[in-house]
Amino acid sequence: MTAPQRVLVTGGAGFIGSSVVRHLLADSQAKVLNFDSLTYAANLKSLESCSNDARYRFQRGDIRDLAAVKEAFRSFRPTHVLHLAAESHVDRSLTGPQAFIETNVVGTGIMLQAARDYFDSLSGEEKSAFRFLHVSTDEVFGSLEDDGMFTPTTPYDPSSPYSASKAASDHLVRAWGRSFGLPILITNCSNNYGPCQFPEKLIPLMILNAKEGIALPVYGKGDNVRDWLYVEDHARAIWSVAQKGRLGATYLIGGEEERTNLSVVHTICDILDEEVPHADIKDRKSLVEFVTDRPGHDFRYAIDCSATQKELGWSPLESFETGLRRTILWYLNNDPWLESIRSGSYRAWMEENYAWR
Ligand code: NAD
Ligand code: DAU
Questions:
Q1: Cα(61)–Cα(313) distance, rounded to whole angstroms?
Q2: Could you confirm whether 311 is annotated as catalytic?
Q3: At what angle do helices 108-121 and 161-180 cross, to 10 degrees?
Q4: Residue range 149-193, pLDDT digits in tens
Q5: Whole-angstrom distance, CA of residue 296 vs CA of residue 293
Q6: How far is the CA of 141 from the centre of ligand 1 (A)?
Q7: CA angle at 47 for the pair 42 and 53, rounded to the nearest 5°
Q8: CB of 114 within 8 A of CB of 70?
Q9: Is 139 tagged catalytic?
């Protein structure tokens, strides 16, 4: 009998990381260590369904802290590392870029240093099974015009401090693979949406504002295009790459669901008008306000993920229409999750429910 897989997930209390943790516990036999420093973007309420699972452990820790990261490797002895911890919001990187350099670049460097030392200490099957998967973004490739798609060979051309910091981290990961033989994999994915996303990002922000009947701030003319992927489809893709991906390879992941921002916002308004009509506002689309554009705003992202689909047999299960309705219904029905973010009470809840390990 083979030993169970042991998956160290960094950033597992965030939006995508929590979906990855839930996926691993539901659809694999793996043991999971969630290593997360709990920034503003984290919410352990997203993992309430996992907290009593004997295969799950949470450790509060910072990826910039080499000693803490090394200790996590030493005590947990992972077969796989899924590295998601990052500062993830483009707008915040414009007002405070330093945190992005520290976490996304320096923190990834620390993860690589600890992973290399650990990998070098392994032998036999443990060594040949080990994988370090770095979760990255399509934003490293910069902006597209009306035509064309990103492929695994598109040159890097990041525009924001966020995407530049992710590009730097991708280069570090590749370098540790080429120079030190660390068995790495990289995924570059398009815009995710779904339950448990911090409401600073376009879709949850628009759902909550439109529900309340307050202004919907659309940058520029709303004609920028993003490709949308339901978060659970991303979580499945990450685990599939970690298990079946070729060493050193890059996998592009996308939803093949391109939409202008304005059309996304309009669709959210239409679904909310249908599900929860507002007493005073007949058509929530009237709430749209065109505001000053984001500096360096990439015009369009589009992903050619046919190679990933063909090689791994993965494809998205959720269409944008079904996924968006599911997401809206989740935000309408999960006031306690939202309240915990708004009031900060989730921090107290975490203190009560978790002895920090
Ligand atoms: P998020 O902001 O929701 O969550 C990030 C998590 O990382 C949080 O739980 C936070 O506490 C943790 N974290 C931050 N700094 C840390 C540190 N120094 N040490 C330990 N933990 C730390 O992010 P997300 O949207 O879930 O994105 C996860 C990853 O996926 C990121 O690497 C991001 O670049 C990448 N990605 C995101 C998207 C997207 O659409 N959201 C798309 C493609 C790739
Ligand atoms: O492409 C993948 C990336 O998608 C991830 O790497 C990032 O972590 C993630 O945050 C996301 O980046 P974006 O900048 O595309 O996501 P955001 O939700 O911030 O914005 C989506 C689009 O909507 C973008 O064109 C800007 C626009 N926008 C956003 C906000 C918050 C608005 O028009 N109004 C808004 O209030």
A1: 35
A2: no
A3: 20
A4: 999 999 999 999 999 999 999 999 999 999 999 999 999 999 999
A5: 9
A6: 19
A7: 140
A8: yes
A9: yes
Q: Which residue's CA is minimally distant from atom 7 of ligand 2?
A: 88
Average pLDDT, the chain: 95
Q: How do the residues of the chain divide into helix, strand and coil, expressed in percent and rounded to 5?
A: 50, 15, 35
CA of 352 to the centre of ligand 2 (A): 34
What per-residue confidence (pLDDT) applies to 356?
31
User: Which architecture, in CATH terms, is 6-193+230-256+298-317+345-353?
Assistant: 3-Layer(aba) Sandwich (3.40)
| Any ligand 2 atom below 6 A from CB of 261 | yes
Q: Is the CB of 41 under 6 A from ligand 2?
A: no
Please tell me if the CB atom of residue 39 comes closer than 6 angstroms to any atom of ligand 1: yes
Provide the CA 223 distance to its chain's centre, in angstroms. Answer: 24
Q: How close is the Cα of 57 to the center of ligand 1, in Å?
A: 19
Res 6: pLDDT: 98
Determine if the pTM surpasses 0.85: yes
Residues, the chain, total?
A: 357
Domain definitions of the chain by residue range: 6-193+230-256+298-317+345-353
335 is catalytic: no
Any atom of ligand 2 within 6 Å of the Cβ of 10: no
